[in-house]
Design a protein that fits this description.
With 213 residues, the chain is α+β, with helices and mostly antiparallel strands. The chain folds into 2 domains: 7-93, no CATH class; 99-201, no CATH class. Helix content is 19%, strand content 38%. It has 3 helices and 13 strands; from the N terminus they run H-E-H-E-E-E-E-E-H-E-E-E-E-E-E-E. A 7-stranded antiparallel sheet has the order 6-12-11-10-7-8-9, covered by helices on one side. Strands 2-3-4-5-1-13 form a 6-stranded mixed sheet, covered by helices on one side. A hairpin with a 5-residue loop joins strand 8 (137-143) and strand 9. The chain is globular, with a radius of gyration of 16 Å.
């Protein structure tokens, strides 16, 4: 990684070590995954996000909800999710998040409702991972603007291993109790069904997260 500190990272104090960690921001690589230039993806992604992700992960310590496809951490300084197969897919938020263990039927109901909101254009992005096989079975959708969506993969009726939805609705979404926010579903290695909820949205740390807005 280059020794130059990303100016936006410097503006919130990330260049000063872990003691400079500041609240109220999110790191979101979704927009960077929309039709990326794969020839230089690794280098450009590390230059843009590497420092911020490293500092964020070093600060967020807490509950571990990992499975074979996604790393999920929830702590007092925020929460994050990162693909184990493709680490460039990262989302981190400094918000306080709630964690709830639910039944399989409750998990299916929450996922069905989340998909319905996404299809109704009430979410900015949605990620579903169904398996870690090669090639992986997943769906990624990102709303570029009010008229255009980028989608790859297929939504299935199967219960996923992981789901993340970033809501952006005109009215309150019952799943999170707010108009904007994030819902995570994670099926852990032990088979537990976990829902992580965070209300509202923080300011995106990096400009790529504002792509298409």
């Amino acid at each position: 990684m280059s020794g130059d500190v990303n100016p936006e990272a410097r503006s919130i104090g990330l260049s000063g070590g872990l003691g400079g960690y500041q609240p109220d921001f999110e790191i979101n690589t979704d927009a960077a995954l929309v039709d990326p230039g794969w020839d230089d993806f690794a280098e450009s992604h590390d230059r843009r996000f590497g420092l911020a992700i490293s500092h964020f992960k070093s600060s967020v310590k807490g509950r571990t909800l990992d499975n074979e496809v996604m790393t999920v951490r929830v702590g007092k300084n925020g929460y994050y999710t990162q693909s184990r197969r493709f680490p460039g897919a990262f989302f981190g938020d400094t918000a306080e998040a709630s964690v709830e263990a639910v039944s399989e039927s409750e998990a299916r109901a929450a996922i069905w409702e989340a998909v319905a909101h996404y299809r109704a254009e009430e979410a900015q992005s949605m990620v579903c991972v169904y398996s870690g096989e090669d090639p992986p079975d997943f769906f990624f959708g990102y709303r570029l603007n009010d008229d255009r969506r980028y989608e790859v993969g297929m939504l299935r009726n199967d219960l996923p291993l992981h789901l993340r939805v970033m809501f952006d609705a005109a009215q309150n979404v019952p799943l999170i109790g707010a108009r904007t926010g994030v819902l995570l579903y994670q099926r852990t290695r032990s088979g537990k069904h976990m829902l992580v909820r965070a209300q509202g949205r923080r300011s995106p740390l990096l400009s790529a997260a504002r792509h298409g807005s």
